[in-house]
Amino acid sequence: MRQPKILTTIRTYSWSQFVADLLAGITVAMVALPLSLAIAIASGADPGQGLVTAIVAGFFISLLGGSRVQIGGPTGAFIVVVYGVIADHGYDGLVLATFMAGFILLIAGYFRAGNLIAFIPEAVINGFTIGIGVIIATSQLKDFFGLTVGEVPADMVEKLPVLWSARETVVWPAFAIAVVTMVLIVVLRRAAPRFPGLLLAVAATSFAVAWFALPVDTLGSRFGELPSRLPVPALPELSWSRVSELFPSALVIAFLAGVESLLSAMVADRMIEGHHRPNAELTAQGVANIASSLFGGLPATGAIARTATNIKAGGRTPVAGLVHAAVILLVMLLIASWASYLAMPALAALLLITAWNMSEPHRWADYARGPRSETVLLVVTLVLTVLVDLTVAIGVGVSIGLAMRLSHRRSVESDWTPPDR
Fold first, then answer.
1. Distance in Å from the first CA to the final CA of the chain
2. 211 in a domain, yes or no?
C-alpha cells in the first residue's frame, strides 16, 4: 500500500491534536536546525544547503510518507557518501546523483521493494552504522581542537597522522567551547529531555565566543552569512556520460535513504505501537530527494533521532513534520544572519555526540554476546566501512550475510532424514 499516512490521520484530526503536533514540530525544528547545519559542513557542503534540505525534503517526507511520525532531512549516515561525491565529482555531481537516487527510490516504491529490508542482515546495518559514526567523529577532530591543518585527507589511514602532526596548533579556547558544549548537551538531555537541548547548548557556547571575543572560528568567519531565502529550483545538468559516471553513487544514496528511512519508521512503530507503510515511505523518499536536488540540497532520509524527539514531544501525525519544515523556513527567512555567530567547535561537539549516539554503545555488549558469525559480520562491515569504502562494505557484508543464511538453511535441511515408507 502506497497511500500517504496523512490521508489516514486527517480523517479523525482534532484541534487538540493540532496543538500537540504544533508544539512537537517546533521542538524538533530546534533540534534539526543545528544538526542540519553541522551535517552539511561535515559533508563538505555549505551550511545553507543543510537548511534547504531540512525544509524541502522534510516537507515532502511528512506529506507523502508512510509513517505517522517520521521526520526527514539530512542525516549523519550520508556524510561519508556526500563528502566523497563532492570531492570526486563536485557539488553539481552530488545534485545529479541525488536527483537520480530519487527516481531509483520511486521505482523501488512502485515495485514494493520496501518489504525487502527484512533480507538485509542486521549485523551489516549495525556494522556500517558504527563505522559511519567513527568516520564522522574523526572528521570533527580538526574543529573540536581548533587545529590548523591545510587539507585533511578523506582516507582514515592518511587522516589520523595529519591530525596528529598538527597537535601543537591546538586552540585551547576552541577545545574548551567544544567540551562545554558536549557537557551541556548531555546535562540538558537528562535534566530537560523535552527541551531543545542541542540548540540551547550550541547557542549558549556560541554566545560566549561572541561575548568574550574568543579566537574561535564561527559559521560567519568561515562561510559568510547563511542564505535568507530558498534558491530558485532548477534541473541538474544532464548528459549521458555524467549520468553513467554518477549512477553508482546514486545507487548508494538510494540504498542508504531507503534503509535508514525504513529503520527509522520501524523504530517509530515500536514507540507509538503503529504500523508504517514501507512502500509509501520509499515513494516519499524518492519525491523528497528529487525535490531537494532541484533546490540544490543534499540527500535526505528519515532521521531516527529527530523522529524520536518528535514522538517524545507529543507529535502523532505528519502535521508535526510539516510544522518542523515550516519553522526552519521561517528561521531562514527571518533570522538567518544570527546563525553566522554559531561556533565551529560547538557544532563539532554536536556531531561527536551524534556519532556516539549513532553507534549505540549500549548495544555493544549484546553484539559481543550474540552468535559468533553475526559478530564477525558486524566487525568485517565496520572495518571495511572505515578503512576501505562504504559501498564495498555494504556489498561484501550483504553478500556474506546472505551466504551465511543460505548455508544455515542447507545445514538445517541436511539434518533431516526422510522416514521409511
1. 46
2. yes
Domain that holds residue 214: 5-362
Residues in the chain: 421
391 lies in some domain? no
Backbone angles phi, psi at 268, to 5 degrees: -65, -40
Element housing 168 (H / E): none
The CA distance from 334 to 331, in Å, is 5
Average pLDDT of each block of 10 consecutive residues along the chain (421 residues)? 84 91 90 88 91 96 94 88 92 96 95 78 84 85 89 78 91 95 91 79 92 91 87 92 94 90 84 88 96 96 86 90 95 87 90 84 89 90 85 82 75 46 38
List the one residue out of 378, 415, 421, 375 whose CA is nearest residue 396: 378
**Is 103 within a domain?**
yes
Q: What is the pLDDT of residues 62-109, one digit of tens each?
A: 999 999 999 999 988 788 889 989 999 999 999 999 999 999 999 999
Cα–Cα distance, 253 to 100 (Å, whole number)? 9
CA 76/CA 50 separation, integer angstroms: 12
SS3 of 251-264: the string is: HHHHHHHHHHHHHH
Residue among 150, 156, 163 nearest 136 (CA): 156
For the question of whether the overall pTM of this predicted structure is more than 0.85, the answer is: no
Q: How many domains does the chain have?
A: 1
DSSP tag of 194: T
146 φ/ψ sector (left φ>0, alpha ψ -120 to 50, else beta): left
Buried b (16+ CB within 10 A) or exposed e, 265-275: bbbbeeeeeee
Query: Which of 336, 385, 420, 411 has its CA nearest to residue 133?
Result: 385
Per the domain annotation, does 392 fall within a domain? no
Q: Identify the H or E element spanning 159.
A: helix 156-165
Residues 311-341: pLDDT tens digits? 888 899 999 999 999 999 999 999 888 888 8
